[in-house]
């Protein structure tokens, strides 16, 4: 019975990824046959890459749904049931910081800033500053949800 549920989830993920990848593939083909032809070898490599993205992203999203999301729901429900708001706040700070510091795009941006400023603004200072900012905003968002504060009030408070 679980196999059928997993298969249904996989089919749903395949459909989601297809809806995302197929239009881009069609656009590339339209461009190839109209205004920007590429070598057949390059087009073949693109098709192979699109197939790998389709399969890999579907399997990745299946794993997220079956593993990581369930762990997140379990941890979230335990935190909320504990009625200790400070634990939720600390969890938000820690998760926000580590999720953002692990983001590869942030590392690329920090490297570029370090390179352009010739080291005046170091990579590590960008990484820490952005990660702390995201951690704080994630915690504010969690508190906003817990205390049922309107988004408008939070945004006005942050701008003042």
Entry keywords:
160 residues, mainly alpha
Q: What do you see in this structure?
A:
- It is extended, with a radius of gyration of 22 Å.
- With 160 residues, the chain is an all-alpha fold.
- The relative contact order is 0.07.
- It folds into 2 domains: 1-74, no CATH class; 82-160, no CATH class.
- It is built from 6 helices and no strands.
- Helix 3 runs antiparallel to helix 5 (123-146) and helix 4 (104-116) crosses helix 5 (123-146).
- It has helices spanning 2-33, 40-81, 85-101, 104-116, 123-146, 151-159.
Please report the total strand number as a whole number.
0
The fraction of residues in strands falls at under 5%
Major beta sheet, specifics? none
- Output the structural class: mainly alpha
Describe the structure concisely for a colleague:
The protein is mainly α. It folds into two domains: 1-74, no CATH class; 82-160, no CATH class.
Describe the SSE topology:
Blueprint: H1 2-33, H2 40-81, H3 85-101, H4 104-116, H5 123-146, H6 151-159
């Amino acid at each position: 019975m679980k196999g059928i549920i997993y298969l249904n989830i996989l089919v749903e993920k395949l459909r989601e990824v297809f809806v995302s990848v197929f239009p881009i593939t069609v656009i590339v083909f339209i461009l190839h046959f109209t205004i920007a032809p590429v070598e057949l070898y390059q087009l073949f490599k693109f098709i192979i890459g699109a197939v790998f993205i389709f399969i890999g992203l579907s399997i990745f999203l299946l794993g997220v749904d079956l593993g990581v999301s369930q762990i997140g729901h379990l941890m979230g429900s335990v935190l909320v049931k504990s009625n200790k708001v400070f634990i939720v706040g600390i969890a938000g700070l820690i998760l926000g910081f580590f999720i953002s510091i692990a983001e590869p795009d942030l590392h690329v941006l920090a490297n570029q800033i370090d390179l352009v400023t010739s080291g005046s603004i170091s990579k590590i200072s960008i990484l820490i500053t952005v990660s702390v900012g995201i951690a704080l905003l994630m915690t504010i968002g969690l508190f906003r949800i817990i205390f049922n504060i309107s988004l408008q009030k939070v945004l006005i408070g942050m701008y003042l």
